[in-house]
DNA sequence: ATGTATTGGTTCATTATTCAAACCATTGGT
DNA sequence: ACCAATGGTTTGAATAATGAACCAATACAT
C-alpha cells in the first residue's frame, strides 16, 4: 500500500457522526504508527485538505475540499443533472426520491426530494449508504465491476432481520437486479421502508443510483408499477445528463420492464 | 517535501480553465519525474480524489471530493452563513457582493450575489482570486500570518497598470487595510472595477473575505461610504456565523470607520 | 508508407521514508 | 499528588519512493 493511499485512507474515517478526529483516534482507527499518522495528518493539513480545530486540536475536513468540489461541479455538473428529474420522480410517485454518487469508498447521497402528497414520508438521515443493504447499493453492484463487489462483501453489517447476511444472499439480490434492471429492497436497511433503485451512468461507467424510498405499508402492486416506470424514466434522464451510456443488457431489461405498461 | 505534499500539489494545477490534465502535462507542470507523477496520480485516482476521462485518459477531480465537501458543509456550514448577509449587502449597495474562502493555495470565490438595481453590474467569472491584486486578497493579507504574505509575494503578475508590482507596494496596501479595517482596490485586477473588501474570521483565524465589486465610474464618495458601512456590517455577521472572533485591532478600526456616519 | 515526436505506462538499482517502541510535555479527572 | 489520557518527537532497522531509461501505441508530417 502506497504512502499516498494510506494518507487518503485517513479521510475515509470522517463521517457525519464523526466529523472531527484526533491524532490518537486516527492512530487507533487506521491501526497505523502514531508518528507516521501524525506526519500524514500534518501533510494533509498543510495542503488544506484537513484543518485543526484550535480548541480540541482534532482534525476535520479542510477548506481546500470546497475549492475542489466547486471546480468539479462547475466543469462536470452532477447536481444540475438531477434538478428536473428528481423532483419529478418524487412528484409522480408520491414518495421520497434520492440520488447517490459512487466513489472509491461507497455510495453517498447527493440530493433528495420529498413528495408533498403524504404527511408520512420517508426522511433520509444517513448520507452514506451501505452497498449490501440498500436498493441503491444493489443496483450499483449489479452493473459495477468485481472490485466494487469485493468492497461490498468486505463489510456486511445487519441493519434489520431481512438484511442480506451471506455473500450468497447478496449475490442473489444482485443477480435479480441485473436481470430486471432495478433493485428492490424490502426493509433491508430500515424497517418500514421499501427501496426501489436503478443504476446511474456517466462516461466512466456506473456512477451512482437513483432511488425511491417508500413507506412499506403503502406499497401496492399499482404503486410499485408506477414507481418502477418513473424510476427507469428518471434513470435514463439523469444518465443522459451525466454523459453516460446505458449498457445494452440494461437497456433491454428496462424495455421489458416497461412493456407490460405500453403493450396494447 | 513529503510524498503526500507532492501528490497534493498536483491537485493545485487544476482550475476552471484547465479542468483536465494528462500525465505528460502534469509531469511538465509539476517538474517532477513522469514515473513518480504517474504513481501519484494513480494513488489519488484509486482514492477517488481524481478520475480519468476514459476518452482522453486525462485526469480530473474525482467524486470523493464531493463526498468530503458535503460532509464539511453539513458539519461546518460556510455557505449557510452567507445566505442572509450577502444578498443584503448587494441590495443595500446596489453592486455585486461576493465572499471568498482562504485555503492553503489562496482565495476561492464561495458565493456571489448581484444587485438587481443596475443593468451594468459586475459579473464575476474568475473563481480564484490573486492575493496581491484584489481587495479581498489585501484584506486577508492584512490579518493573515506571515506565511500567507510569503505566498502572495511568490507570484505577483500584473493584471492592469495599477496592480501592485513590487513587494513594497503590496506591503503599503496591506498596511493601509490593516489600519482602516477594509481594503479598497481601484482597478488592480480588472479595469473599470473598484473592489472593497473586509476580512472574515472563523475559529481558526482569517478564513476569507467579503467584498463588493463596483463599477468604477459609478463610485461617488456617498456610495463609497454606504459600501464601507454595509461591508463592515456584513463582515461582522458572517464572521459571527462562522464562529470567528474579530481581533481587537480590527474591531477598533471598524468602529472608527463607522464613526463619521453615526457621530451627531 | 517511414521516420519522428508524443502520448500513457513500466522496470530496476539507489535513496529516502516509514515503522515500532520508546520518550516528553500538557491536560483533566480522582 | 497521582493516574490516564492527550498531542507531539525522537531513535536505528525495515520498507517504500525515486528517477533514468525503456516499452508500446498513437498522431503527424514528409
Walk me through what this model shows.
- 2 copies of one chain form a homodimer.
- The first copy, chain A, is of the alpha+beta class and 264 residues long.
- Chain A folds into 2 domains: 3-66, Arc Repressor Mutant, subunit A (Orthogonal Bundle), CATH 1.10.10.10; 76-262, Beta-Lactamase.
- Helix content of chain A is 45%, strand content 19%.
- Chain A has helices spanning 3-11, 23-29, 34-46, 64-75, 85-93, 135-143, 146-154, 167-180, 221-241, 248-262, and strands at residues 50-52, 59-61, 96-103, 106-113, 128-129, 183-186, 193-202, 205-215.
- In chain A, the strands form 2 sheets. Chain A has a 6-stranded antiparallel sheet with strand order 5-4-3-8-7-6, with helices on both faces.
- In chain A, α2 packs across α3.
- Chain A binds a DNA duplex (30 and 30 nucleotides) through residues 1-3, 6, 22-24, 32-36, 38-39, 57.
Features:
homodimer; 264 residues; alpha+beta; Arc Repressor Mutant, subunit A; Beta-Lactamase; 6-stranded antiparallel sheet; two-stranded antiparallel ribbon; 10 helices; 8 strands; DNA-binding
Map the helices and strands.
Two copies of one chain form a homodimer.
Chain A: H1 3-11, H2 23-29, H3 34-46, E1 50-52, E2 59-61, H4 64-75, H5 85-93, E3 96-103, E4 106-113, E5 128-129, H6 135-143, H7 146-154, H8 167-180, E6 183-186, E7 193-202, E8 205-215, H9 221-241, H10 248-262
Antiparallel strand pairs in A: 1-2, 3-4, 3-8, 4-5, 6-7, 7-8
Chain A binds a DNA duplex (30 and 30 nucleotides) through helix 3.
Give a quick precis of the structure:
Two copies of one chain form a homodimer. The first copy, chain A, has ten helices and eight strands. Chain A has 264 residues and is of the alpha+beta class.
Amino acid at each position: 500500500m502506497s504512502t499516498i493511499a494510506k494518507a487518503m485512507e485517513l479521510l475515509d474515517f470522517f463521517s457525519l457522526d464523526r466529523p472531527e478526529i484526533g491524532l490518537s483516534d486516527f492512530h487507533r482507527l487506521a491501526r497505523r504508527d502514531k508518528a507516521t499518522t501524525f506526519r500524514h495528518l500534518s501533510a494533509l493539513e498543510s495542503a488544506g485538505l484537513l484543518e485543526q480545530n484550535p480548541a480540541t486540536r482534532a482534525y476535520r475536513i479542510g477548506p481546500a475540499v470546497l475549492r475542489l468540489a466547486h471546480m468539479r461541479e462547475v466543469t462536470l455538473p452532477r447536481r444540475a443533472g438531477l434538478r428536473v428529474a428528481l423532483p419529478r420522480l418524487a412528484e409522480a410517485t408520491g414518495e421520497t426520491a434520492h440520488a447517490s454518487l459512487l466513489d472509491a469508498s461507497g455510495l453517498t447521497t447527493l440530493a433528495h426530494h420529498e413528495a408533498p402528497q403524504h404527511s408520512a414520508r420517508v426522511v433520509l438521515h444517513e448520507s452514506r449508504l451501505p452497498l449490501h443493504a440498500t436498493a441503491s447499493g444493489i443496483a450499483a453492484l449489479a452493473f459495477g465491476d468485481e472490485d466494487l463487489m469485493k468492497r461490498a462483501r468486505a463489510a456486511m453489517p445487519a441493519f434489520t432481520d431481512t438484511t442480506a447476511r451471506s455473500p450468497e444472499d447478496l449475490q442473489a439480490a444482485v443477480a435479480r437486479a441485473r436481470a430486471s434492471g432495478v433493485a428492490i429492497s424490502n426493509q433491508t436497511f430500515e424497517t418500514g421502508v421499501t427501496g426501489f433503485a436503478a443504476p446511474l451512468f456517466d462516461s466512466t461507467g456506473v456512477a451512482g443510483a437513483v432511488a425511491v424510498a417508500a413507506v412499506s405499508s403503502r406499497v401496492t402492486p399499482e404503486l410499485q408499477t408506477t414507481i418502477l416506470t418513473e424510476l427507469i424514466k428518471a434513470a435514463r434522464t439523469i444518465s443522459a445528463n451525466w454523459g453516460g451510456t446505458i449498457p445494452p443488457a440494461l437497456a433491454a431489461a428496462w424495455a421489458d420492464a416497461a412493456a407490460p405498461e405500453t403493450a396494447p
